[in-house]
């Protein structure tokens, strides 16, 4: 993979169907010795095959049954390329708004959606409510092996959610 080679400090010469590089070098180098490559998406043929073969981390979203199916597809691709899925960090992203109760979180989420001129945040679980409620919604995904949740915060960023997200981590035992 050209990007991986460049990020790892190699000089790369390549002539291919889509890219031509002549003694290319990535400068300045990333601060980390190994900058992780996260691939987002869940296409069962191309995207998950790319994750299995190349990614350090994978980001997806969806309802529990959907995510289980995506994991099964990723497992199949990992087996085909001879990779242990445990080498890939599993991440999820959800819209999250934290308040003391669900009604207050739903009201704030509605304000944020209206501000952005959008009717919804897509066909994914919207985690709205108390830290305990949000943690309970995340727990089944943690049990599937997901270690990281990326919080989708529509603008303007919700300061209370940012300040209270640690309460969700604590509720998850973490």
Provide an overview of this structure.
There is one protein chain. Strand 5 (89-98), helix 4 (102-115) and strand 6 (127-129) form a beta-alpha-beta unit. Strands 3, 4, 5, 6 and 7 form a five-stranded parallel sheet that branches. Strands 1-2 form a two-stranded antiparallel ribbon. The chain is built from six helices and seven strands. The protein has two domains: 1-35, no CATH class; 36-171, Luciferase-like domain (TIM Barrel), CATH 3.20.20. The longest helix is centred in the middle third of the chain and has 18 residues, at 64-81. It is 42% helix and 20% strand. It is an alpha/beta fold. The model has no long low-confidence stretch (mean pLDDT 95).
Describe this protein with a few key phrases:
single chain, 2 domains, globular, 174 residues, TIM Barrel, alpha/beta
Write the layout of secondary structure elements.
Layout lengths: L1 H6 L4 E4 L4 E5 L13 E3 L6 H8 L2 E4 L3 H18 L7 E10 L3 H14 L11 E3 L1 H14 L3 E5 L6 H13 L3
Parallel strand pairs: 3-4, 4-5, 5-6, 5-7
Antiparallel strand pairs: 1-2
- Kindly name the structural category: alpha/beta
Number of helices: 6
Shape: globular
Distance between the termini: 35 Å
> How many domains, in number, for the residues?
2
Helix content: 40-55%
List the secondary-structure elements in sequence, H or E: HEEEHEHEHEHEH
Largest sheet: 5 strands, parallel
């Amino acid at each position: 993979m050209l990007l991986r080679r460049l990020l790892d400090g190699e000089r790369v010469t390549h002539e291919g169907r889509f890219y031509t590089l002549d003694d290319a070098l990535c400068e300045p180098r990333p601060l980390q010795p190994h900058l992780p490559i996260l691939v987002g998406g869940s296409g069962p043929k191309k995207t998950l095959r790319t994750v299995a073969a190349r990614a350090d981390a994978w980001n997806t979203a969806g309802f529990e049954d959907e995510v289980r199916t995506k994991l099964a597809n990723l497992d199949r691709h990992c087996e085909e390329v001879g990779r242990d899925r445990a080498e890939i960090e599993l991440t999820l992203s959800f819209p999250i708004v934290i308040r003391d109760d669900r009604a207050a979180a739903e009201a704030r989420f509605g304000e944020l959606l209206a501000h952005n001129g959008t009717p919804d945040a897509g066909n994914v679980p919207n985690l709205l409510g108390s830290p305990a409620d949000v943690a309970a919604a995340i727990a089944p995904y943690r049990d599937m092996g997901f270690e990281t949740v990326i919080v989708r915060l529509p603008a303007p960023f919700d300061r209370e959610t940012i300040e209270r997200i640690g309460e969700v981590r604590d509720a998850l035992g973490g």
